[in-house]
Amino acid sequence: xxxxxxxxxxxxxxxxxxxxxxxxxxxxxxxxxxxxxxxxxxxxxxxxxxxxxxxxxxxxxxxxxxxxxxxxxxxxxxxxxxxxxxxxxxxxxxxxxxxxxxxxxxxxxxxxxxxxxxxxxxxxxxxxxxxxxxxxxxxxxxxxxxxxxxxxxxxxxxxxxxxxxxxxxxxxxxxxxxxxxxxxxxxxxxxxxxxxxxxxxxxxxxxxxxxxxxxxxxxxxxxxxxxxxxxxxxxxxxxxxxxxxxxxxxxxxxxxxxxxxxxxxxxxxxxxxxxxxxxxxxxxxxxxxxxxxxxxxxxxxxxxxxxxxxxxxxxxxxxxxxxxxxxxxxxxxxxxxxxxxxxxxxxxxxxxxxxxxxxxxxxxxxxxxxxxxxxxxxxxxxxxxxxxxxxxxxxxxxxxxxxxxxxxxxxxxxxxxxxxxxxxxxxxxxxxxxxxxxxxxxxxxxxxxxxxxxxxxxxxxxxxxxxxxxxxxxxxxxxxxxxxxxxxxxxxxxxxxx
Length: 498
What we know:
By secondary structure, this protein is an all-alpha fold. It has one domain (about 45-495): Amino acid/polyamine transporter I, CATH 1.20.1740. The chain contains 18 helices and no strands. The protein has helices spanning about 30-40, 50-60, 65-70, 75-100, 110-115, 120-140, 140-150, 155-160, 165-185, 185-215, 235-250, 265-295, 305-315, 320-355, 375-390, 400-425, 435-455, 465-495. Helix 2 runs parallel beside helix 12 and helix 6 packs across helix 18 (about 465-495). About 45% of the residues are buried.
């Protein structure tokens, strides 16, 4: 039998008492694997400190559109946000902190699943996370060019709707992401920090705007916190699941860079504890600001923040000068978010290569910057390929649309496994997982499963719910069978070499 590191989530100062557990001691049977991964990571520059991690957490988790979605529920949004925070956000934070303290290794959730279960589950977690990140990053060129139209103004449609222009923009953006990632987190962290600061500034402005309008007399009342019970319906349940997993997921992503962080066992967990309440305040009070200035039936779900800022500053006579600046800031935020996602995604093929699950080619590091240059090239090419496909008409085809609809499920699969690790994945270790952590994992697992169910079996009106479920479910199974085939081929090659 063996034991994992004891986990004390709120401990910030290591103990030196020999009668107490030492969090730095390697676990008996995991020690060889942990030491091997740590040895592989030793060549990396330890670029990420606590401030870098906190701002990256805020940048990556906060989505600018969620305040509009939540505001559609009217004053009941506060209850829904608090419910999602209680049942998903806090549990996911606890589980991420716990697992990262036990296994602060480059690759994050891949390593947790591999050590908590086995190589196969670890690989499949990485496969689903990789698919999710590829699909989401590949649309960055389209998003940037569409938002650019708001800056250029009327008459720019001929440019921003031109497939060649969008394709060139996508190529340039993904090329820039690859360059930043090759140079490493020494530069990348500043991109992420600027994005995180811009995100906070936009929300500070958003939250303060109703107060300015109240003082100006543009609005007569403002109630930032209203505790009205939501209407119990399937649509409310749908929104609740999305405000949980969809809006509040992402704490685990920065742990992919654990081997490039300083004191990752403590700093990543502390970044979660610092960022979590900030993000909660941003979402709740940001939604209240939307409601104070825009009627629920008039909220623009695609671009709620530009709409609110335009309305709020318009009442103050400053919309013309403020809105273009805000849109440029939002474009910068989207590029920074893409950088976070792209950078983390390039580490997954590398760590799989360390375990001989992918060719050694993926593990090659740049001679100067010590970054996985071949993995970066591969992920960049795959991302650009998916982005270009969406521009040449394939994006209108059913199979491609189904792939986009399934992308959230790919991410949810990684969360289902993550929540299962403290429940069943560590049984053989002899570690007695605390009851409170089991309760947290069960709650997070249930919320994630609810999101998966609603994604596969839609509650909105479609031509055939059964046919939709079969198509989405079949696509998820098919893509995972492809991943499984890669794993089996790699295992067979490794066995032949041995």
